[in-house]
Write a structure and sequence with these properties.
heterodimer; A: 412 residues; B: 454 residues; mainly alpha; 16 helices
Chain lengths: 412, 454
């Protein structure tokens, strides 16, 4: 144990005095602060839009049709997910059974509930990914984590300190564990100032109203981020035990990073579109238009059934895409953190279901106040458990790989 | 001498693992993604084909119609705005046009994860590979002591630098060439894509642009390698630069532009439009009342002809008002959005990657400019339609066309499709900025290298 602590201390000292770690720390601070400032501005804009919309709702509109929007989630400043999409105004019209109760994209005069995406100005932001905390950790810092650990073992070998160290009575697992823990603690120390400053900025600016539960969720996202970063740190450790030169290890780790973070999730999503295609909304709308109207109740029932089938196929495609992309820890991290931030896919589905159910009840003659309670903390945690387990599994698998490779490693 | 040095550099690159990694990554990422996007395009084409052939399409009612554009074929290489790109606008006689494809029931994952396309590959993976090919170009030779050996020969420093750049750059090109060839084959053989000569020409320019963009990163890699003494330091610096240029600047610039050049929210404009609508409706309603008073005061008691005349007052107002006055409000809003987008593009000049993305999406007609062009084309279409109808009514006195859709009065919907030369000439500054970036890196590398100790 004492030896382990000594080795960890040595690793910490070596890392924290290196320019790589100092630069990473500075970059983390700059990125996290810029991100939180810009995302707070974005949240403010969305809140203004929300307030404007809700103030805009007149009594007449309430009677004639319902026009409302989903309130932006406070934690969307950390993980925006689909919050912006869900926050777009939603119109529900109807004195009569609707032709297109869920699906028509278009103007107010079109009947049915729909989101309309008219000139929202979003397309400027559509060309690039939103630079929120989840993006910074998921893409930028994961690359850094791998970059900081790629030379853990093979770097020591290149400088001939590995053979020197192994000539002492140090067990290989102890050495590897010390390297792993020491390096990871160094990474955490690098991240700490950035995360703390981000939290301070969130509190001081008070643009985002954070409740106690939001803080708990935020803590969860930070914890998740640390587990995710550990995956890439361990990946770097693995490649460094598989190779004998840092340059080879670096190229290997960056390639895996590119495949894992950039390739797999996107290819998974695109592949699901091809493997389980869903007809466009407007084609579905045309099909509904062709339904022959009998009695009001029958007509309504037929359209609702069609809606259910359509939503079912969309959800099946989404499920397939999510499962395919889960081969990448990046996808698991994004799904889990957006679920915690109440801006994830499950929240979007929950919102859609609530609106749909309420609308059906309303049409069934049971007018009720529309309440859109977001998922509770325990529900969110339950829904992200699979992704959390996956992230843990990646860590265990990669460390096991590194351990096995290091047992057979030629230290000379 | 230059050729010998280039050959030496290429040989050392080809024997290195990074050459094979580059080859594998290009094949693994580029070919499947192009195939998937081509299939996706085929599916879209199949569904939208019904509408696109007509340009203008009405789903049965006289008061609403859709205006459709062609799906840009080059979205298989540069998906650009992807699902945020409007392929049709929904128009009603009583309101303005609605764009966008946002839907209540859709695959939300596409809002979180964008497509992996050729542009994405070049931007992220290509730039990263460029740095792995060049990080030890000078500093590695210096550390191994071979730089002294090389410089002991009568080799000019500029020549050595150029050979380092060209050698590593050509090696990269050779490593991704099979994947690019396979990509071309996919595009050529895929039954749904069907590229015409203009698409092939645009693809060629896209490739040229991509190679220029990657070239800048090669130059940057050589430059940083000249500054630093050890490959490890070079790598640290390059990774930082890569993060800044590829992951930070492009993603942050739209948000910074939105902060510096805020535009009113959509619903504020909507409110403005509503107020204008209400104000303009008052005299028309008065006119209707006067008409009603002049014809007995009761709608039900009026003759069919007068009833039509009475309604025509309102419908005619809607047709002309929404097509002319109201669209001015939206035009002003679109222009503000355009200005914001231009500001974001100005910021993006800092990063060759962001510039490349904007340029590539414009070349492929899948970017912000294409979206704006479609919106303005729709507005123009509505105006022309209203003008044709007004002229017809004035000429014939027949107001029945206010309620019916007459093909002879519907103007052809023309979506401006700028040629490659137009796109290039209108974005010359951005093109030049990429070239300038590379040139500056080479000059800086040369200046640093002639002053550095061997």
């Amino acid at each position: 144990m004492r030896l382990l602590l000594t080795l960890i201390r040595r690793e910490l000292l070596e890392d924290l005095t290196s320019s790589r770690y100092i630069l990473t720390s500075v970059l983390c601070i700059v990125l996290c602060l810029t991100s939180i400032i810009l995302m707070s501005e974005d949240y403010k804009r969305r809140m203004e839009r929300y307030n404007f919309l809700m103030a805009d709702m007149t009594q007449e509109e309430l009677l004639r049709r319902l026009s409302f929007a989903k309130r932006p989630q406070p934690l969307s400043v950390i993980a925006r997910g689909v919050d912006e999409v869900m926050g777009r105004p939603l119109n529900i019209t109807g004195w009569q059974p609707e032709e297109e109760p869920i699906a028509h994209v278009g103007g107010r005069s079109a009947e049915g509930q729909h989101l309309y995406g008219f000139a929202q100005g979003q397309h400027l932001f559509a060309l690039f990914t939103t630079p929120d905390f989840v993006y910074i950790v998921g893409v930028v810092l994961s690359a850094f984590a791998a970059f900081l650990s790629f030379g853990t073992v093979c770097g020591e070998k290149q400088t001939h300190t590995l053979s020197l160290l192994m000539s002492y009575s140090i067990r290989r697992p102890t050495f590897l564990l010390a390297k792993w823990l020491g390096g990871y603690i160094s990474l955490l120390i690098c991240l700490c100032p950035a995360i703390l400053l981000m939290l301070v900025s969130l509190t001081v600016t008070s643009v985002v109203p954070m409740q106690a539960e939001d803080w708990m969720r935020l803590a969860g996202i930070v914890g998740l981020s640390l587990i995710y970063l550990l995956v890439f740190f361990t990946l770097g450790l693995l490649t460094s035990t598989l190779t004998h030169q840092p340059a080879t290890s670096l190229i290997l780790v960056l390639s895996i990073w590119a495949l894992w973070v950039l390739g797999v999730p996107r290819i998974g999503c695109s592949a699901a579109k091809g493997l389980r295609p869903v007809q466009p909304n407007f084609v579905f709308g045309l099909q509904k238009r062709a339904v022959k109207q009998g009695s009001v109740e029958e007509f309504q029932e037929t359209l609702w059934k069609m809606d259910d089938v359509y939503i079912g196929t969309v959800d099946a495609q989404m499920r397939m895409a999510a499962n395919l992309s889960r081969f990448s820890p990046f996808a698991s991290y994004v799904y889990a953190s957006t679920t915690l931030a109440q801006t994830g896919i499950t929240d979007a589905q929950n919102f859609r279901r609530q609106v749909s159910d309420w609308d059906r009840e309303r049409r069934g003659g049971r007018p009720d106040q529309l309440l859109l309670p977001p998922l509770r903390l325990e529900q969110s945690v339950l829904r992200m458990t699979n992704d959390l387990i996956l992230l843990f599994s990646w860590n265990v698998l990669l460390f096991m790989g590194a351990y096995l490779a290091f047992l057979r490693y030629d230290v000379r | 001498m230059l050729l010998i040095l280039i050959r030496k550099e290429m040989l050392s690159q080809v024997l290195n693992i990074r050459f094979y990694v580059s080859f594998a990554l290009a094949f693994l990422l580029l070919v499947p993604s192009t195939y998937i996007l081509a299939t996706d395009y085929g599916l879209m084409q199949k569904e939208y084909g019904l509408l696109i052939g007509k340009g203008f399409y009405t789903p049965g009612a006289w008061d609403r119609f859709w205006v459709c554009r062609e799906i840009p074929r080059l979205r298989v290489l540069a998906s650009g705005l992807d699902e945020n790109l409007s392929l049709r606008s929904h128009n009603t006689v009583y309101e303005g046009a609605y764009f966008g494809e946002s839907q209540f029931a859709h695959n939300f994952l596409s809002d979180i994860l964008s497509h992996l396309d050729f542009v994405f590959f070049i931007n992220i993976v290509g730039s990263l590979l460029a740095f792995t090919f060049t990080y030890d170009a000078i500093s590695g030779e210096r550390q191994r002591g071979t730089l002294r050996l090389v410089m002991a020969n009568p080799v000019r420093r500029a020549l050595l630098l150029l050979s380092k750049f060209l050698g590593s750059y050509f090696s990269f090109v050779v490593s991704v060439l099979p994947a690019l060839g396979a990509d071309v084959l996919v595009l050529y053989l895929h039954p749904d894509v069907g590229f015409g000569s203009s698409e092939w020409e645009a693809s060629f320019w896209l490739l040229v642009l991509a190679m220029l963009n990657v070239g800048v990163y090669f130059m940057l890699g050589v430059f940083v390698s000249c500054i630093t003494r050890e490959p490890r330091t070079t790598l640290t610096a390059l990774i930082m630069i890569w993060v800044f240029l590829v992951l930070v600047v492009p993603n942050f610039s739209p948000f910074i532009a939105a902060k510096l050049h805020p535009i009113p929210a959509f619903h504020q404009v909507q409110r403005q439009a509503d107020t204008l609508t209400q104000e303009s409706a008052q005299p028309v309603r008065r006119q209707q009342h006067e008409f009603l008073d002049a014809h007995g005061g009761k709608y039900e008691a009026m003759s069919e002809e007068n009833k039509m005349e009475y309604q025509a007052i309102w419908v005619n107002h809607c047709r002309t008002f929404y097509a002319r006055e109201l669209t001015k409000v939206w035009e002003a809003f679109f222009n503000q959005m355009d200005a914001q987008a231009k500001l974001a593009q100005c910021f993006s000049l800092v990063s060759p990657s962001a510039t490349f993305t904007y340029l590539a999406s414009n070349l492929a007609h899948t970017g912000i400019e294409s979206e704006h062009a479609f919106r303005f084309a729709t507005i123009g279409f509505r105006r022309q339609y209203a003008a044709n109808l007004g002229e017809y009514i004035q000429r014939t006195g027949d107001k029945t066309k206010l309620w019916t859709l007459d093909d002879t009065l519907i103007p052809p919907f023309e979506m401006p499709k700028p040629t490659i030369s137009t796109v290039i000439s209108s974005h010359l500054l951005q093109f030049m900025s990429i070239i300038l970036y590379g040139f500056l890196c080479f000059c800086s590398a040369y200046v640093v290298f002639i002053r550095s100790l061997i």
